[in-house]
Specification:
111 residues, mainly alpha, two-stranded antiparallel ribbon, 2 helices
Length: 111
């Protein structure tokens, strides 16, 4: 198990606290947007995600992908979930999304 740096731990704690506060207030509406890197504005960029030791409720899940286009890390909070029992079902959904983003070609996503 790898140790998180102090800064990463503080950011995770701040993110969880903010999400918990949002979850308590049913009046707040958060709108989702397209998958865009907030640093370089690349639509649906290739990203890498390094697993960490974070844990908590699925509804408070926080992603910290690194954009392969600009090399910067950003933070993403899933607003909706597509949940599947089998990996094959999830892969079918991902493949359908990849087809949309690639303009109809099946090779728009690396597996």
């Amino acid at each position: 198990m790898s140790m998180l740096g102090r800064e990463q731990l503080l950011l995770m704690e701040r993110g969880v606290k903010a999400l918990e506060k949002l979850a308590e207030d049913p009046v707040i509406q958060i709108e989702g947007g397209p998958p865009v890197c907030p640093h370089c504005n690349t639509l649906n960029p290739q990203v890498s995600v390094h697993e960490n030791d974070g844990e908590g409720p699925l509804a408070l899940f926080l992603l910290d992908p690194k954009c392969e286009n600009c090399g910067k890390t950003f933070y993403a909070v899933p607003l909706e979930w597509a949940i599947f029992e089998a990996r094959e079902e999830a892969e079918q959904e991902i493949n359908q999304r990849a087809e949309v983003f690639s303009g109809g070609t099946a090779n728009g996503r690396q597996t």
